[in-house]
Amino acid sequence: MGHWVGHRGQSEPSPVSHARSRSKRLHLETTDFGNQENENRYYMEDHTLRDTVEDMQSGIDPGQENTTADAAAQAEENEEREARKSAFVEELISWIKSFIIMFAFALFLTQFVIINAVIPSGSMEDTIMTHDRLIGARFSYWFSEPARGDIVIFHYPVEEKKIYIKRIIGLPGETVRLVDGSIYIDDSEEPLQEGYLKEEWDVLNSDFEFHVPEGCYLMLGDNRNWSEDARYWADNALNEGIADTPEEAEQYTYVRKEKILGKALFTYFRKFRILEHGGWYE
Q1: In what order do the strands lie in the sheet with 182-185?
Q2: CB proximity list for 69: less than 8 A, separation 6 or greater
C-alpha cells in the first residue's frame, strides 16, 4: 500500500498530533500570562512596601495621615476662633475706652464748664418757666464780676445743699430800697425799670432796705409775688435755728460771690430761649 505524500515530499501531520501541539502551545501562553500577572502583583506590592518603608524612615506613620490632617484642620479652626475672639475683645475694649472718655469729658464739662439745671418752681416766671431746663456757664465770672440783671445759679444761703436761681438786683456795697413795688439803688430817685416782672408786684413790695456787704449780692425773683428770695431768707434762718438774732440772721440775706455757681445762658426745654442779662426793659 502506498503512503500519502505531501508538499515537498514531507509527510502531513495527523489531526491528533496537531491538536496536541495546539493544546501545548495554549498552555504555555496561559502560563506566560499568569507569570506576567504575578510579576505585576509582586511589583505593586514591592512598590507599596518601599513607600511604607520610606514613610517610616521619614517619621510619618501612614496609619496617622488622616488623623494629622484632621488635627491640622482643627488647629486652623481654633486659630480662626481665637482671632475672632481677640477681635471682639479689642472692639469691646475700644468701646469701653470711648465711653470712659466721653463720660470723663461730660463730667469735666458739668463740674467745671457748664451747669445743666431743671427749674422746679415758678419764681422766675415768665422769664424761666416751671420745669424748664437750662444751661449755665460756670466760667462766666472767672475773669469778670457779676452784673446787675444777671440771672445766676447759686447755693441757697440758709441751706447750701439747695440750688437756687434768681436775678441779681443789688451789688456789693450798695443800698437797695423797696418802696411801693419799685426798687431804688443808693440815693437814686429813679426806680429800676423792670419790664421782665410777670405781673404787678404787690406782695412784700415796700419798707425794705438792704445794705449789701462787700463781696455779696442781693437776689430777687422775677415773679415777685411768688418768689422766695432775699426778702424771706433772714426769717428762714431764724426759723431753722441757724441764727439766734435778727442781726445774726441778716448775713443769710445775701449771696457771697464764691457761692455763685454760674450764669444762666439759655433754656433748651420746653422752649429754646436765650436769657436776657444786664439790660432793663422799658
Answers
A1: 182-185, 175-179, 208-211
A2: none
258-281, pLDDT tens digit by residue?
Answer: 999 999 999 999 899 999 876 553
| Bridge partners (DSSP) listed for residue 116 | 135
DSSP at 53: H
Bridge partners (DSSP) listed for residue 185: 176
- Which of the four CATH numbers 3.40.30.10, 3.40.1280.10, 2.10.109.10, 2.170.16.10 does domain 119-274 have? 2.10.109.10
pLDDT tens sequence across 32-82: 444 455 444 444 445 454 555 455 555 555 555 567 777 778 888 888 888
**What grid cell was written down for 173?**
456795697
* Residue spans per domain, the chain: 15-60, 66-112, 119-274
Nearest one of 196, 167, 197, 192 to 179, comparing CA atoms: 192
